[in-house]
Design goal:
homodimer, five-stranded mixed beta sheet, globular
Chain lengths: ~300, ~300
């Protein structure tokens, strides 16, 4: 039996998982990213962790491939990292080629939101259908669209910037220069900002969710408002694409139904009843493991499939 | 050389075109729809017009197939018409099978907006790329998305209801039960309604466009407002799908840049500069011939291809 390793390459941490063909993580490693020393140093340190995971395999099993989910933008065709705001040290490098040469194994690389979507689609909350939209809500908001089993990349490889769909053209200004973007209602920093405006207290987005779970009325309304904006965006996506499975991930999704019930209500208000009746809005079932499992799936495709 | 016939089956008229392999319409027919007598009667009358067109062919040419664009909803897989609000007489009938049996020729059938999109994509304003979004603005507003050469149908065959994307959650009520839908700003009836509200004069949507072209200030502002709403929807679609070609058809598109310049400006305001810089918003180049040519393309696929 062959195994693969899925890697979530993050701004501060790198999480690795040894993944079996059913999508079970059999062993894990986690190291600091420390990207300042450049791509080759990061590749060296990843290779050392790959060796550690490989050493856990019984003699009859082999490592077939490695997959990486990176905080975009990336070129998934060439495997290059482009300009990564949070990882300047490894930006603009042929990361997949470097890792592949170092490991002498097939390596796949894609955007982490797309990897997470593939994880949910093949092993998690989206595995009951052939199409799915994944929306990740954390510091920023992004999406990945899977239609008939395949990711939509777009003509310039930048599909999925649904965090900047306009929810209200007269809404809050967004750092992107527009206003009323979905992100201005739902991101972690947006939750913190709206909570501070209503309560005078400075807390993080995660703390807003924690307070809402504890019954704080202001926090509950901030999350409900975020959910209503999310529901409007989901409605427009569902009307346009007629995709019926929406999986919501990222740190803000930890608020669960405090966010998602408001989204479901506004989805019903802002779409045809025939459409909203079929749309299912779910929280991630894989959580932080989604990008690891999606990267593992990409690795397996690269080892076994045409990709 | 083989020829095909494309048919635009409309609420009041049926337009037929004999189309050569380069997408040139070599002969035309046009009859009233008169759907009251039912599907078989309409099929009989279409068959008579097909015979007339066939008779114009020189002896060395043959008719290979026929394609039909129908005002949805349709099931493009089975070729059935579903419940057509404007054509109750032929609703819920196996229209493709009936026409195919009558003609003894392969017949293709799809939604008219999708047919029109295929027409623009293969023979018109969208033929310079492999992806395109067609937005048709008439009595209603719909869309058809072509990604990497293929139409997106969605899981329940209802993709393209982008006329009901939310442009402003506190906007005008829409007949669909929601509010602030794109359609409430841009459809012909919406133009008429907003013009009447601002001027006190009752005119049709077409007359609003005509007055705007003649310099009427109120009409110009109604069209600009419609264009701004259209630009917001295009921005959200471009950010999500990263498709760079938008072709605008339907009767309201006859207003041309009076509508589209406002759309282009608001697209720039409501999307990343890197995205809007690449997006091209164009008017239809085929006009009323778009569904005929798209239906002809579908006919050729059905005769020659796997479809």
């Amino acid at each position: 039996m062959s195994q693969v390793i899925g890697i979530d390459l993050g701004g501060s941490k790198i999480a690795l998982g040894l993944v079996d063909p059913r999508g079970e993580i059999r062993a894990r490693r986690r190291i600091d990213t420390n990207s300042e020393a450049g791509s080759k140093a990061v590749v060296e340190r990843i290779a050392a962790e790959v060796e550690v995971l490989k050493a856990t395999l019984p003699p009859e099993e082999a490592l077939a491939a490695v997959g990486v989910g990176a905080p975009g933008p990336v070129n998934h065709v060439s495997g290059d990292l482009l300009t990564l705001v949070n990882l300047p040290g490894i930006s603009n490098s042929p990361f997949r080629r470097l890792l592949q040469e170092r490991l002498s194994l097939p390596v796949a690389l894609d955007h982490d939101a797309k990897a997470a979507a593939l994880g949910e689609f093949h092993y998690g909350a989206g595995r009951d259908g052939d199409s799915m939209i994944y929306i990740v809500i954390g510091t920023g908001v992004g999406a990945a669209i899977i239609y008939q089993g395949k990711l939509i990349y777009g003509e310039g490889n930048s599909a999925g910037e649904s965090g900047h769909m306009t929810v209200d053209p007269k809404g809050h200004p967004c750092h992107c220069g527009s206003r009323g973007c979905l992100e201005t209602y739902t991101s972690g920093p947006a939750l913190a900002k709206h909570y501070a405006a209503a309560s005078g207290q400075t807390v993080t987005g995660a703390e807003v969710s924690a307070r809402a779970l504890a019954g704080d009325e202001v926090a509950l309304e901030v999350l409900a408002s975020a959910g209503r904006a999310l529901g409007i965006a989901i409605a427009s996506l569902a009307m346009t694409l007629n995709i019926e499975r929406f999986v919501i991930g990222g740190s803000v999704a930890l608020a669960g139904d405090l966010l998602l019930n408001a989204a479901r209500e506004s989805l019903t208000l802002y779409s045809f009843k025939t459409v909203s009746a079929k749309v299912n809005v779910r929280a991630t079932s894989l959580g932080e493991d989604a990008p690891i499992l999606g990267a593992a799936w990409l690795a397996r495709q690269r080892a076994c499939g045409p990709g």
